[in-house]
Each structure stands twice: as C-alpha cells, then as structure tokens.
Design a protein that fits this description.
By secondary structure, this protein is of the alpha+beta class. It has a single domain, classed as Gcn5-related N-acetyltransferase (GNAT) (Aminopeptidase, 3-Layer(aba) Sandwich). The protein contains five helices and eight strands; from the N terminus they run E-E-H-H-H-E-E-E-H-E-H-E-E. It has helices spanning 18-25, 28-31, 44-55, 106-120, 136-144; strands at residues 3-4, 9-11, 63-68, 71-80, 90-97, 126-132, 148-159, 162-172. It has an eight-stranded mixed beta sheet, with helices on both faces. The longest helix has 15 residues, at 106-120. The mean pLDDT is 94.
Length: 178
C-alpha cells in the first residue's frame, strides 16, 4: 500500500532506504522524543534490522516510511494492543520525522493519513498516542489531526536521565474532525 499525499508519500520501508534511514534517525533530538527501543546512535545495521522487521510483518501493512522527494525522512505506524481481547480494535500510533523537516506541517499530514488508513483499512476503532511532556510540538500535531487530550500520566517514563510525564491523546473512528 502506498499513500500519496500533497507533500509526502507513505510507503513500505525498502532495502534501498538503509542509508537515508540511518542518516535521518541518527539524531539525538529525534531519539529524545521516542522510546528507548529506538536506538541512539542509529547505525546502518539498526536500519537494516528495522527494514527486515517491517518486511516481516503480516498484511495488512501497519507501518510506513515517510518519504519526501524519494528520500526517507521518517516513519509512522500503529501497533495493535489487542493481544488481550479487551483492547480489541485499539492501537497505539507512533511516528518520527527527521529534524530538518520539523515545523512544516508534514507530520500533521502524515498522522491524518495514517489515522484514516487505520480506521478504514485496518478496521480499528481507537487510536492512542503518548507524547513525552516536553514535546509540545508533537502534542500539537495530534491536536491538529483531531486527537483529544485524555490526560497526563505523571512521571510515567524515564528518558535521558529524567522522569517525564506522558500526555495521552486518542481518536475514535466515530470522532468528528473539522
């Protein structure tokens, strides 16, 4: 599946993305806003492992490379939470974008497209996203994409030597968006 948007494309990760993925992901400011499963430094070996992992996921596709002018500059995807049936049709949204592309509205565009895809193609009912308390820009992306603030999870994570709050946002398939 490939999603063509006005300023970017969401497509599968490809073996040819290794160099671009490693270059753009190997940024401390990107890493600071992601879980520790996202390595830092981010090497070409890490990129190869991720691309192999992505290729091995079952269909339908749930993660995408964010591509601008044929260059991978980020990633976005959903992780289903319904291994326990009580969370059926619920997933967590995650994303990152290379720093040179921040502040251009690109991630809002990607989140809106991924949200629509998750509801329409993956049959999800609820998407949620947790944002580290210091990442005001990411919270704003979610708000612009129609997500609702549900609450502050006080000191929930430990990142880069600090205890941080997590801001929890969600969107339901039934939510009206302007």
């Amino acid at each position: 599946m490939i999603l063509h948007l006005p300023n970017l494309t969401l497509r599968p990760f490809l073996p040819a993305d290794v160099e671009s993925l490693a270059r753009h992901a190997n940024n401390r400011r990107v890493w600071q806003n992601l879980r520790d499963g996202f390595p830092h430094p981010y090497t070409e070996d890490d990129a190869r492992r991720w691309i192999s992992h992505a290729a091995g996921l079952p269909d339908p596709q749930s993660i995408f490379a964010i591509v601008i002018d044929e260059v991978l500059v980020g990633g976005i995807g959903v992780h289903r939470l319904d291994k326990d049936p009580v969370y059926r049709d619920t997933a967590e949204l995650g994303y990152w974008l290379a720093e040179p592309y921040w502040g251009r509205g690109l991630m809002t565009q990607a989140v809106k497209a991924m949200t629509g895809y998750a509801f329409d193609e993956l049959g999800l009912f609820r998407l949620e996203a947790g944002v580290f308390g210091w990442n005001v820009s990411s919270a704003r992306v979610l708000e612009k994409a129609g997500y609702s603030f549900e609450g502050r999870l006080r000191k929930q994570v430990y990142k880069d030597g600090q205890r941080l709050d997590v801001l929890l946002y969600s969107r339901l398939r039934t939510d009206e968006v302007e």
